[in-house]
Specification:
By secondary structure, the protein is of the alpha+beta class. Helix content is 45%, strand content 15%. It is built from 9 helices and 5 strands, in the order H-H-H-H-H-H-H-E-E-H-E-H-E-E. It is elongated, with a radius of gyration of 20 Å.
Amino acid sequence: MAITDWPESERPRERLLAHGAGALSDAELLALFLRVGVKGASAVDLARTLLKRFGSLERLFAAGRAEFSEIPGMGDAKYAQLQAVLEMARRALREGMAAGDALASPRAVRDYLRLALGGLPHEVFMVLLLDAQNRLIAAEELFRGTLTQTSVHPREVVKLALSQNAAGAILAHNHPSGVAEPSRADEALTQALKQALALVDVRLLDHFIVAGQAEPLSFAEKGLI
């Protein structure tokens, strides 16, 4: 049955307008993005298929073009639309951090990092660079792959901080395993980067580990910086 045949009070768009986006399920929100279904399946049915295939919105958002397009009814057009929506969300969060003290808005930092790193199948190391007022200057992905002191080069982090005239830095990387606890290698790397940045008067303010849908772990809150 097409969504247009549903009672008006049960249609996702009407429910959103009446009660707000928070009242909708993941499948209903995704259905509004998809707009139409495929033969024999409504947009909500298709949304449920996508969520079942990927397991969560987070993993769906991190899917590559080829994997996304394997789902009947999906393709380059929908993939491009989804990437545009995600990039707009990331830019909106970056704008918020650039406009004010990023440390005064830890939720915005965590939300941005989860959107940027959550669900990725490989490890990614990012650096957020801040000015003297803790406003975001830049957010850069520097390395991919298993993170060690040999794979993440302190000189590259320092070089980036100097090029942006940064006063502070926040490090972040993801754990595709879904376990947010820092390893000894993570702790050793953090201390090495803290010392390297201190040599050029850049403060290391925090290091976050993003792991699936769990709350990103803060090294500062754990007393590890």
